[in-house]
Amino acid sequence: MWTVRNCPDNSAVPRRRTVLALAAVLAAGAVVSVAALLGGVGGRPVVHGAWAEPGGSGAAPGTVDGSASPSASAAAKSSPSTPPPASGTPPGWRLMWSPQAGRDGLAAFEGVEDDRAGTDPGVKHIYVQGDNYRVDMPMNERDSAPDRQRNEVKGMHADGKDLSLGLGETWRLDWSFYIPDSLQGTNRFTHIMQLKMPGNGSAPILTMDLSRQGSVQKIQVKIFDGGTVVGSTDLAPLQNTWLSTSLTFTIGDAPQGAVSWMLSAGGRTVVNATKTGVDTWLQDRVRPKWGIYRSVEDTSGSLHPCYLLLTKLRAYQKM
Fold it and tell me: Does this model's pTM top 0.90?
């Protein structure tokens, strides 16, 4: 039987609730009692019976520190605040894929790579939580290569078929995602999105990375061939909040390839960058992947049990 494991998100220990009683004496001696008002110290909201950090995730029922037991169901875990709404179809583009997690489940993807080496048996690490896709990563899991971990979804399935992204085409991928502070940049590799050619052993074409330069964490998009960084910004201010991103790319051998990346938080654009003349093609076709794929050889102490949330995924093809 599959169980679902909730990875800790390092949320703060809930503070005690306070009860305020207010009484007022009205005319003619009438006394009106106002029911006790429940509120969090410092104004923290209540989420499913637990204190939650503003914009963060609260403790699920039956937990002490915000971590459910390994046998807890996905429904028993609270999600962070609501992600921003998906935007409409931009002019000049055709909407090709727009899954809803609660409706389509994991059938929205071409495939799921959940603990494919079977090192954490009996646990489901990729699943639907509300209308989000959740990817968990425990510390003990290993991929088929024992120096790394991988839980990813791959490809896009729509109208009964897998979408194929081909040479000379221009595509735009939009999605919202939530990175808790337990998912950190490392001094090896940590990818949360990739563009790849299908097939085992092929190098990525492009990656979205969580990296570390000394004590400074970065989120960046990088062309794998030549290590060209499309854009980069500090990660720490963007953790524990919903982010929206748009990745636009023309598929081609250099110099025909091009990539644009936009990243926003709270309606504020933090990255808007473009690189042209780059290589975005290997052979066969291009396929996106989302999830957590990271080396366990980090030496900065940045590896923790963690998770990633994904929602509002959209794919558009240039008309």
Answer: no
